[in-house]
Write a structure and sequence with these properties.
The structure holds two protein chains of two kinds.
Chain A lengths: L2 E10 L2 E11 L4 E5 L6 H9 L6 E6 L2 E2 L5 H7 E4 L11 H7 L13 H13 L15 H15 L3 E5 L7 H13 L3 E5 L3 H7 L2 E6 L2 E6 L1 H4 L2 H8 L2 E6 L6 E6 L6
Parallel strand pairs in A: 3-8, 3-9, 6-7, 7-8
Antiparallel strand pairs in A: 1-2, 1-4, 4-5, 9-10, 11-12
Chain B lengths: L1 H11 L10 H7 L9 H20 L8 H12 L13 H36 L11 H14 L10 H19 L1 E2 L2 E2 L1 H25 L2 H12 L11 H25 L2 H6 L4 H23 L5 H13 L3 H25 L8 H19 L1 H4 L4
Antiparallel strand pairs in B: 1-2
Helix pairs in contact in B: 3-5, 3-14, 4-5, 5-10, 5-12, 5-13, 5-14, 6-7, 6-8, 6-9, 6-12, 7-8, 7-12, 10-12, 10-14, 13-14, 13-15, 14-15
Classes of the chains: A alpha/beta, B mainly alpha.
């Protein structure tokens, strides 16, 4: 399924934080959303999955305006992996992942064997199947993040939204997560911080700065030292690996001018 | 070089979907999971205990009735044509004591306990805070002001409202005020709800105190009796409104429990799975307030049930609302039936107001729970 942000502006707390974003994510594409803290990445993702009407413009899924969709219908289409927010009342890992099935089940119905099967699969895919009976809060940050991935996988939407999915993970699990996500075949929009991971796994990169889309395109053309300098205010150098010829970026504090 | 090589290697292998397993973490992961009781047998156990307490309560009091005779009387009234009801083995006095006085008050205690516990659990889900319950959110205080206004006015009604009606209105007004005070940009802020509820509760308690001090002396005792909570005035007709309110709330939470689970992880997380959070909060809050109003109107200010019982339920079966709500409802019923039995017996022939007893039992129990089982019950931060 494709996603189209059509001239989307969003206000939060009376302040406009996104200004006329035009962005198209084609079916099955993996798009990385990059930008400094506060650039509006999370807000853009929220405009998609909460279905709240933006200040102006529209968010369309296969041509359908998300603000016109019933929340449960939207939640069946768009799976979401957010940062885990700590709860005073703790569910077990399995119960948490089962919450991901709730848009698929009517209010008075019970969990079906299919739900259990999907949850089992999600727990295995996210590598948390042996934590099923643990309380989420007793886990490490990285384990919790994988539980949140499992919940999103159990949600089974054709579009997957990820908000900084790798920031508590060790390097191996970061790569595992990105590999799982890119192997799903779903349309993916992910807010990311690691530019090299974004470059390695995304089909396209969208760069936000102060609520505006400043660049969009394939990683190699978008992620240039000039753009990194302009948006992130650091000096980037491109390193070519001797044995593979592959590109990677290294980052350095900006050199004082003069 | 190693990290970027790894990334690029990964990129080439990106269509290989499965995660490798990390052995160290698996070993840690296998360390003990959470021990939880099965819901079905726990429900059955509590229900059996509740029936036993009902029979035992029905056999307790100044008129001597054996537990077996008490059970016979209850069964005889429920199923027509039982031989012992007409063969003269039971006196009319025994029948009256059991069926007119003791059973209704036990049933009212059960309904009140179940309702207050459920209202507490609903409010805790609304504000995502283990402290929430009808008292903390000011709802009980609002109901009390309404009921006390009727008592001090000296008549049966105040502004055309009966005691039930006034308590009802008081609870709803308090609930609406708290919700209005806690609104930020159209959304209910959980923390502000607690703060607003505590402040409003204090204000409303002051109103109640003022009304009590300035009323005629003959009203003071009934006000005090009401404020401390009692089910001693129960008859079968007083059970109707709380029973209906409880039934409505039970059916509603049965349908909403999945959404309530989603709400535990936060608003955005709940919205992500299609929950209309503001609407859900409003609905739960209104239902919990209705329930509280209906109960406070007949049984007065019984505290601690809404706070203690949901935590006990979580401790037994975990926080999944589909598991803990049935235990909360039944556990609340059992808790208050036992409390009422104690209220009638510990200082015989004097009867202790129920609210004093629940506080005496509830507060130390709650503190013990906080110290020992805090992590599992969910308040270790």
């Amino acid at each position: 399924m494709s996603v189209l942000f059509d001239d989307v502006s969003v206000a939060r707390g009376g302040r406009t934080v996104l200004h006329g974003i035009d962005l198209e994510v084609g079916t099955g594409r993996i798009v990385g959303l990059l930008g400094p803290n506060g650039s509006g990445k999370s807000t853009l993702l929220r405009a998609l999955f909460t279905g709240q009407r933006p200040l102006s413009g529209r968010v369309l899924i296969d041509g359908a305006d998300v603000s016109q969709l019933a929340p449960r219908t939207l939640a069946r289409t768009v799976s979401v992996m957010l940062q885990d927010s700590p709860s005073e009342f703790d569910l077990t890992v399995r119960e948490t992942v089962l919450v991901g099935r709730s848009p698929h089940r009517a209010p008075f119905s019970r969990d079906t064997p299919e739900d259990q099967r999907i949850v089992d699969e999600a727990l295995r895919t996210a590598d948390v199947h042996d934590l099923g009976d643990r309380l989420v809060r007793s886990l490490s940050g990285g384990q919790r993040q994988r539980v949140m991935l499992a919940r999103a996988l159990a949600q089974s939407g054709e579009i997957l939204v990820l908000d900084e999915p790798t920031n508590h993970l060790d390097i191996a699990h970061q790569l595992d997560l990105m590999r799982v996500v890119s192997g799903l075949g779903t349309t993916v929009i992910a807010a990311l911080h690691d530019l090299n991971i974004a470059a390695a796994f995304c089909d396209d990169i969208a760069v936000l700065d102060e609520g505006r889309l400043v660049a969009f395109g394939p990683p190699d053309t978008v992620l240039t030292p000039a753009l990194v300098d302009e948006v992130f205010h650091v000096t980037a150098r491109i390193a070519i690996e001797v044995d593979t010829g592959a590109r990677a970026m290294t980052f350095h504090p900006r050199q004082p001018v003069g | 070089m190693s990290e970027s090589t790894a990334i690029l290697t990964e990129r080439r292998e990106r269509r290989l979907p499965f995660l490798r397993r990390r052995s160290g973490e698996r070993a840690r992961g296998r360390s003990k999971g959470r021990r939880m009781l099965p819901v079905g047998p726990t429900v059955a156990t509590i229900a059996v205990l509740a029936v036993l307490v009902l029979v035992f309560s029905a056999a307790t009091g100044p008129v001597a009735v054996s537990p077996v005779d008490a059970a016979k009387i209850v069964i005889g009234h429920l199923i027509p044509g039982m031989p012992w009801m007409s063969d003269g083995t039971l006196t009319p006095l025994q029948d009256q004591a059991v069926w007119q006085f003791r059973v209704p008050r036990s049933l009212l205690a059960a309904l009140s306990g179940a309702g207050l516990a459920l209202a507490g659990a609903m409010m805790q889900a609304v504000v995502r805070n283990p402290l929430a319950e009808p008292y903390i959110l000011g709802v009980s205080s609002g109901a009390s002001v309404g009921a006390v206004l009727v008592i001090v006015s000296g008549g049966a009604t105040f502004l055309g409202l009966t005691m039930s009606g006034a308590a009802f209105v008081g609870a709803m007004v308090a609930c609406i005020l708290v919700a209005m005070l806690a609104r930020i940009r159209g959304e209910l802020s959980p923390t502000r709800m607690i703060l607003a509820g505590v402040a409003l509760g204090a204000l409303l308690s002051a109103v109640t105190s003022y009304l009590t001090l300035t009323t005629d002396a003959q009203n003071v005792v009934s006000v005090m009796f009401f404020l401390l909570g009692s089910v001693s005035a129960a008859d079968m007709s007083s059970l109707v409104i709380p029973a209906v309110a409880l039934a409505i709330a039970c059916i509603a939470v049965f349908g909403l429990s999945r959404s309530m689970n989603a709400l535990l992880a936060g608003d955005e997380s709940a919205m992500a799975v299609g929950v209309r959070t503001t609407r859900l909060r409003g609905l739960l809050l209104v239902l919990a307030s209705l329930l509280t109003g209906a109960i406070v109107a007949v049984s007065g200010g019984i505290g601690f049930v809404g706070l203690v019982v949901p935590h006990m339920a979580r401790l037994l079966v975990g926080s999944d609302h589909r598991r803990m709500l049935p235990i909360t409802v039944l556990g609340g019923a059992l808790f208050l039936m036992v409390a009422d039995l104690l209220a009638r017996t510990v200082a015989m022939p004097t009867e202790i107001p129920l609210g004093i007893l629940t506080a005496f039992v509830g507060a130390p129990f709650f503190l013990w729970l906080m110290r020992s089982g805090g992590e599992r019950a969910g308040f270790d931060r």
